[in-house]
Amino acid sequence: MMLLSRRSPFAGLGFVLGLATLSLSPAFAQEAAPSAPAQAAAPADPAAVVATVNGKNITEADLSLAEGELSQQFAQLPPEQRRAAALSAAIEIKVLADKAVADGLDKDAEFQRRVAFLQQRALHGEMVEKEVVGKITDDELRARYDKEIAAQPPVNEVHARHILVKTKEEAEKIIKELDGGADFQKLANEHTNDPSGKTNGGDLGYFGPGQMVPEFDKAAQALAIGAYTKEPVQTQFGWHVIKVEDKRAKQPPAFDAVKENVRSMVIRDKYFALVKQARADAKVEIPDAALKKAVDAAEGAE
User: Fold this and answer.
1) Quick one: 206 and 67 in the same domain?
2) What residues does the PpiC domain cover (predicted)?
3) Taking the complete model, does pTM exceed 0.85, yes or no?
């Protein structure tokens, strides 16, 4: 009830390149019949033709591309239906694309600008995939992990119990009973208002600095092992009597547990380094002084 947040030194980063959202035809989505369990099959020939539309082939390679690009739309479908759904979507795309060309939509200036931008964005993504993501090794990730762990200051964790009551007077009475030799866990089970502590003697487990509300955190960190607060501690939840059972150095997360977060950090750094070099080699001009100032400020904040 008192935990605020558990911050990791590793901040995740996602690269999302959105494409046009396409929906399956309702008839197909509702009526596609389940097929028999799929048998393990040899990899399909990418050049194999799976359908033709107006004399133009849709190949296995095209189908794989459709499945990949539209995977979110197919996520709710059973695996045995996704291949047929991808082909249905690819056919819909081709027939409407052919109609668009027949109607002259491909000649529209705004459409051509969008196509040019989407091509540039796709090339941007390909560059990131090939020159950044594809070149990262496990050894590089391990080295970055070791560097980040070494840079973290040592953190001590506290194992504490508490008894939460509504008034200061109740807390003071409990402290007097403890001074007289009463068992802390027994008193916690009898008196605490914290539902999570009524059956485990008020045990909160181990926690580090900043994981509890400030007043509680300060009091717990200041106690020696085996000691309890001689004065009630007030927080937004009520009045606490706190006992420290143990203290230890916090162990860093295992490499495998944060490997993907480390990968995101490495991708981020390599991406910005790649962009910085490309920008240095390019001639970029922004005539609008106010806009240029805003862009420079935004890039400086990255």
Assistant:
1) no
2) 155-246
3) no
Of the candidates 149, 175, 181, 144, the residue with the CA atom closest to the CA atom of residue 162: 175
With 0-12 / 13-18 / 19 or more C-beta atoms within 10 angstroms meaning exposed / middle / buried, residue 67 is middle
Alpha-carbon span 60 to 62, nearest angstrom = 5
Same domain, 103 and 122: no
CB contact set of 297 (below 8 Å; sequence gap of 6+):
none
CB-based burial label for 79 (10 Å; 0-12, 13-18, 19+): exposed
* pLDDT tens per residue across span 66-102: 988 888 888 888 888 989 999 999 999 999 999 999 9
The whole domain housing 77 covers 46-107
Cα 159 to Cα 237: distance, rounded to the nearest angstrom: 20
- The answer on 191 and 131 residing in a single domain is no
Q: 170, 242 in Cβ contact below 8 A? A: no
> Counting beta carbons within 10 angstroms of the beta carbon of residue 14, is it exposed (0 to 12), middle (13 to 18) or buried (19 or more)?
exposed
Round to whole Å and give the CA distance between 92 and 20.
14
